[in-house]
Amino acid sequence: MKKTETPSFLRMLKTFAKESINFIREGAPMCSEEEYKERMSLCVECPNYTDKSACSLCGCHMPVKAKWKTSECPDNPKKWSRLTINEKEAAAIKKKAEEARDAKIASNLKISSSLKSLKERGKE
Ligand code: SF4
Predict the structure, then answer these.
(1) How far is the C-alpha of 58 from the C-alpha of 19, rounded, in Å?
(2) Is the Cα torsion angle 39, 63, 70, 46 positive or negative in sign?
(3) Which one of 39, 45, 53, 57 would you pick to mutate in the ligand 1 pocket, going by the greatest count of ligand atoms within 8 A of its CB?
(4) What confidence tier does 124 reach under pLDDT thresholds 50, 70, 90?
(5) d(CA 38, CA 24)
């Protein structure tokens, strides 16, 4: 029978915030479909998996947490661990970050140009 209890709301919030920060700090690396399915198959068979698809140890919603390469099972011993980010993935993450930075710069330049144009029209 599946568990129904989860940690306190505050504990769940703290755990999820920590997991989210790690995930974002490392460039939001996602698992492959195969890696995700393997993790979820372990969770579904685990006595700590609740009927609400959460882990009763950390309180995280596993269909979300299991997709993040930076996540790991909170049990002792762990049933699954964080996954390493290979060079190809690291390069893709770096490229994505650079594109986001360039898009932000381009957006700022566009705003700056629009403001300049508005000021000039105001003088006419
Ligand atoms: S994260 Fe670990 S402890 Fe939690 S349900 Fe999955 S396998 Fe079980």
Answers:
(1) 10
(2) negative
(3) 57
(4) low
(5) 23
pTM of this structure: 0.73
pLDDT at 41: 98
Q: Which residues sit opposite 61 in a β-bridge?
A: 54
Give residue-wise pLDDT tens across range 49-88. Answer: 999 999 999 999 999 999 999 999 999 999 999 998 888 8
What is the residue type of 13? L
What is the Cα Rg of the chain in Å? 21
Please identify which residue in the block is written with the tokens 């300049």: 116
Peptide bond into 47 cis (omega under 30): no
Ligand 1 binding pocket, CB closer than 6 Å: 42-43, 46, 48-49, 55, 57, 62, 73-75, 79
Alpha helices in the chain (DSSP H): 9-25, 33-45, 62-65, 87-123
d(CA 77, CA 2): 20
Work out the burial of residue 66: count CB atoms within 10 Å of its CB; fewer than 13 is exposed, 13-18 middle, 19 or more buried: buried
